[in-house]
Design goal:
- Helix content is 32%, strand content 29%.
- With 309 residues, the chain is an alpha/beta fold.
- The chain has two domains: 108 residues, Alpha-Beta Plaits (2-Layer Sandwich); 157 residues, Rossmann fold.
- The chain is globular, with a radius of gyration of 20 Å.
Amino acid sequence: MSEEKYYTLDATISCEQQHLLAELDHDGVEEYAIDEAEVDRLLGEKAFSGGDVDEQTIALIEQQLEQDRFRIYFHTGQAGERAQKALKFLQQHDIVCEQIEHDEKDWNENWRQGYETVKISKNLWIVPSWLKESQEVPEGTTALYLYPGQGFGTGRHETTALCLQLFEQRKYNGKTVLDFGCGSGILGIAAKLRYDCHVDYMDIDASALENTRQNLSENDISVQDSQVILRSEFMPGQKRYDLVFANILLEILIKEKDAIIASLSPGAYLIVSGLLNEHVEAFRENYTELQELSVVSQGDWSAIELLAP
């Protein structure tokens, strides 16, 4: 009897292509950085012999450092077929990736080892849900327990961390929040835990909404207290919110501008990310109706806080 297997794809994906991850039928994504061992592998014997490193090798390492590396997991039904389909899809977009087969018995250890607690601020920590019992959290710090499934947003990526950084910088008095393009639900759940407000979650991807529901449960938040809804069923302007998160790429922020603006109450705050640094000006040109309050950046990414009139 053959042993059960699961599969991963290791891929190096540029900032501009990371939206393609949403097109894959996967069971989770882990982001990681190139480490010293990988640099040594790329350098080969020259890393140890003191030989000159050619310009092509240096350029390759610089390219690796400038791009984000992702491990994409396929564990549930027809995992091998889904991994093969994803591999072909990424290769069609000129993304270099490697498929690796693993023994099922190693699943939990390998899947979880890349995740650890993210300390957003002294007031907010993002804790992997399987560490709920073992992670000690300081008194006065809010712990958000997160299972990183198919929904984007673990607190590790710059865009999520920047949104939470802006959120933590201000004390919000509003009672209603919309997580527009919620992914894992991390931003809306943070608002719910910190201020006990009403939060609605919306995404184009049904699997992301399932991940949101799971994370609501991990944090003992009743799904009945929120609206968890597909974009196709969301009616812009039907409800208005005191705070809206939109951690989505520039092209979607522009495409969905009317819906986002229509969701803001007078005097509401909007926190956006998913913006490459070079896209900030283009965003400003498209959202002139709102007053810019703050901009923060990390690596290649930026986030902006705005105020509705």
